[in-house]
Structures are given as C-alpha cells and as structure tokens.
Amino acid sequence: MVIQRVSSKWAKTKVLLKNEQISPYIPTTCKYSSEALTTMLNEFTMVFLKPDCGTYGRGVMCIEQLTLNNLDSDDQFMDTYTIYQLRYNTETKIFNSLEALFIGIHPYTRHHNYLIQQGIPLLQYNSCPFDLRILTQKSPNGQWVSTGIIGRVAAPHKVVTNHHSGGKVQTFETLMSPYMTPMEVFDLQQSLKSLGVSVANQLQKKYHHIKELGLDIAMDNTNTPWILEVNTLPALYPFKKYISNKDVYRRIYRYAVSYGRYSSKKISR
Q1: How many CB atoms lie within 10 A of CB 47?
Q2: I need a surface site. Which of 70, 167, 211, 256 has the fewest CB within 10 A?
Q3: At a CB cut-off of 8 Å and minimum separation 6, what does 178 contact?
Q4: Cα–Cα dist 100/114, whole Å
C-alpha cells in the first residue's frame, strides 16, 4: 500500500489556507526573501525561519526585533534604537541593522529554500517552551481519526522542541493543567482532535494517498492553538512511551499496520 509523503511545508500550507475553517489557525507564512523578512518584521516582533523541506527542526532560526533605550551618563532616557536577535541551535547573535541581519543569515539560507513564519510565543513548562503534537491516522475503515496528543518541551536555550534537538516528551494533561481547569483541558483535547481530522480531510483533497499526519500545535498565552506545521511521517514511538493508557498506543499501532507502515508481525503486546 502506498503511503504518500509531502516534504514541502509551503505546499501543505497553501492547501490548508484554502479552507476558511482552518486558515485562522495558521500563522502568517511566506517564502523567504530579504524584502519579505523586512515586511514580516514590520508586522511581527518575532518570526521563525524554516527550511521548506527540513526535518527534525534542523535549520530553524528565531529572529526577534528588540527596541532598546539609549541612556545618558546619568541614566536618563535619550532615544530608542532597534537591534535584531538571531537564535539558532543554542547560539545567539545580535545585529544592529537589517542589512547586517541579512548578511548574517545568508550562510544558512543560501543553499535551501526557506519560509518565514509569524512567531507564536509558546506556553512554558518549567521555564521551557512547549508545543503539542496531534497524531491523526486513517482507520481501517478509511476514516480519519485523531488517535493521540502529546506535548514536547524544548531543551534549555533551544528554539525547537523535538526529540532530535534535545526536547522532552510530556503528557498533554501535565502541560495544559496549569493554564486551564480540568474541563477546559478536556474541551481543548476534543477541539484539537477535531482540528486534526479537518486538516487531514483538507490535505487529502490534494494528496490522495496520505495515511497519517502529525500536527505541531503552538498554544499562545490566550490558550489559542496555532498550526506550526504538518508532518506526513510522524514519529509514533513517543506515543508508546508516554501515554499511560496502553490501549491508545495499540490502536495507533493497529491503524499503522492497516495502512502499511508496519508489518502485522511486529504488533506490540
């Protein structure tokens, strides 16, 4: 059985933006150019640069536009000035102008197509930002079902949350409980699962042979979800390790077997 993979983030974003129920959840996104970056930084104080076809968070950069105050020798306010902070892996670089910023990021962007995405300030767990991963799969009877949600907590000083960059997996309830009542956590879980199904149905209009999706969801400080990106080859192992209800993973695995990702001989007991 063919399982379709779609590597381009931009291609998937364009399909999702055609759906007016999904598009409000997508941060402003465009192809990278110096002109586009200037425009985005005029609108948002923080943006992310992502390789269009990158995986595991490789090549992701965070750029923040910071306004600072000039003080005289008596610490009296004189005027303000702008700097640009670039974070990549655990490195932080400061640039005093947009022109210097363009030169600074050129070594990263010259060999790859990049996207610029509106930065969403993430909620935090133990002072580290986190996002959520929704797993949505084709069931054996051909229906889309969101089969699991977990959280991913970034390693200290990292701009991405995934395991390959040192991120740690945590349960959805543990991460969201400090910000919501138990009923609100439950309602959010159901809403996110419905969003996963809506995204899958929309992408399937263009990509007919997709069978599984991993939605990366940012939660901002108003508890609003944002779709950061959609992965067509999501990791399933974290759901086995970090969901206490083993029946959940058994269903995940059974669905994966039904559409051909795993052999039925390897079904976990």
Answers
A1: 26
A2: 70
A3: 125
A4: 18
pLDDT of 38 > 60? The answer is yes
Q: What is the token pair recorded at 206? A: 């263009």
The token duo for 253 is 């695995």
pLDDT category of residue 34 using cuts at 50, 70 and 90: very high
Q: Which two tokens stand for residue 147?
A: 């089969």
Residue with tokens 């381009």: 8
For 180, the token pair is 């919501």
Residues pairing with 79 in the sheet:
70
Give yes or no for a contact between 172 and 109, defined as CB atoms under 8 angstroms apart: no
Beta bridge partners of 148: 135
pLDDT tens figures, 120-147:
999 999 999 999 999 999 999 999 999 9
Buried b (16+ CB within 10 A) or exposed e, 205-219: eebeebbbbbbbbbb
* Residues paired with residue 129 on neighbouring β-strands, in sequence order: 124
Which DSSP state fits 23? G
Look at residue 184 and tell me whether its pLDDT is greater than 60. yes
